[in-house]
């Protein structure tokens, strides 16, 4: 992302999905300025915790905010702030409100939570799986339903290169 290997001023748009918080922003934005055509668009988006049902959401939010609080990388702060605090070098345009949606089993949700970088950091720091701390509570909240509707509101910023 910071060295795309593309021709100067060859792109109409650059998009970043669920990743800009890991980039060296100065290098990335310099590369965006190099590869975008004049008037080109930069769009960055990501999501945080999924929305399922109030009783499940409470378990996931507590897990995210308390159990993993010290395990999240500081670079994720901009994502958790819905990218509102992310420095953005473009003339912003109003981005549509979008969401990703799926129908998942409890095993799917646990797999998703297990993929979080905060969970990986917790495991590495403590040698145990933080999912074990919420598994029984998640099972109770899930209530035996096979699949549930999952929705992730997307945080998005978009703008024209000036």
Count of spatially separate domains: 1
Number of strands: 5
Strand content: 25-35%
Helix content: 25-40%
| Shape annotation | elongated
The tally of helices reads: 6
Summarize the structure in words.
- It is built from 6 helices and 5 strands.
- With 162 residues, the protein is α+β, with helices and mostly antiparallel strands.
- It has one domain (11-160): Vaccinia Virus protein VP39 (Rossmann fold).
- Strands 1, 2, 3, 4 and 5 form a 5-stranded mixed sheet that branches.
- Strand 1 (11-17), helix 1 and strand 2 (36-47) form a beta-alpha-beta unit.
- The chain is elongated, with a radius of gyration of 18 Å.
- It starts with 10 loop residues before the first strand and ends with a strand.
- 14% of the residues are buried.
- The model has no long low-confidence stretch (mean pLDDT 93).
Concise overview:
This protein has 162 residues and is α+β, with helices and mostly antiparallel strands. The protein has 6 helices and 5 strands; from the N terminus they run βαβααββαααβ. The protein has a single domain (11-160), classed as Vaccinia Virus protein VP39 (Rossmann fold, 3-Layer(aba) Sandwich), CATH 3.40.50.150.
Key features?
about 160 residues; alpha+beta; Rossmann fold; five-stranded mixed β-sheet; 5 strands; about 40% helix; about 25% strand; elongated
